[in-house]
Amino acid sequence: MLGWLDMSWQSTLLMAPFGASCVLLFSLPDSPLTRPQNVLGGHLLSATVGLVVQLLPLPMELKLALGVGLSIALMQGLGLIHPPAGANPLLILLTTQSWPFLWQTVLPGALLLIMVSHCARRLQTSRLTTT
Predict the structure, then answer these.
(1) pTM above the 0.85 mark?
(2) What is the per-residue pLDDT across 82-93, written as a single tens digit (0 to 9) for each?
(3) CA-CA distance, 5 to 56, in Å (whole number)?
(4) How would you write the chain as a 3-class SS string?
(5) C-alpha angle 93/63/79, rounded to 5°?
(6) Cβ(50)–Cβ(67) under 8 Å?
(7) With contact defined as beta carbons under 8 Å apart, do 51 and 97 qualify?
(8) Helix 36-54 and helix 16-27, axial crossing angle in degrees, nearest 10
C-alpha cells in the first residue's frame, strides 16, 4: 500500500524500517512492540533523534552510533520500544534527510501501517468468529 501511494501521490512514504515494522505488525500483532503508540512513537522519536544528531559536528561513524544508541535509550526510557525504528537514524544519516522527512514520510507511513494492520486484525477476528 505504501509503495502504491508513493507512486500515486508522487511522494515518499516507503522506507526500509517499515518493512521490519510490517513483520511485527502482521506476524506478532499481540506483541507489546506493536502497540500503536510504540509504532508511531518509536518511529517519530528515532527519526527526530537522527535529524538532530545529523546537525552535530561529529564524524559520521560517531553520528551513526550516537543516533542509534540515543534512540534505543529514549524509546526504552519512554516505554515506546519498537525495534524497527532503531534503523531510522541510520537511514536519515546515510541519506541526509531533512526535517520534512519526519512529517512527509515517517508520520504518514507509520499511521498508515497502524491503520492497515488494525483493519487486517479486525478482518481476521471477524473471520474467526464466523467460522
Answers:
(1) yes
(2) 999 999 999 999
(3) 33
(4) CHHHHHHHHCCCCCCHHHHHHHHHHHHCCCCHHHCHHHHHHHHHHHHHHHHHHHCCCCCHHHHHHHHHHHHHHHHHHHCCCCHHHHHHHHHHHHHCCCCHHHHHHHHHHHHHHHHHHHHHHHHHHHHHHHC
(5) 85
(6) yes
(7) yes
(8) 160
Distance CA 5, CA 10 (A): 8
Of 30, 31, 22, which Cα lies nearest the Cα of 117? 22
Cell numbers at residue 104, please?
Answer: 512527509
How far, rounded to the nearest angstrom, does the alpha carbon of residue 71 sit from its chain's CA centroid?
12
pLDDT for the residue numbered 6: 53
| pLDDT tens digits, one per residue of 103-128 | 989 999 999 999 999 998 888 777 76
Single-letter residue type at 40: L
Q: Which of 74, 66, 113 is nearest to 92 (CA)?
A: 66
Instruction: Copy the grid coordinates of residue 100.
Output: 520534512
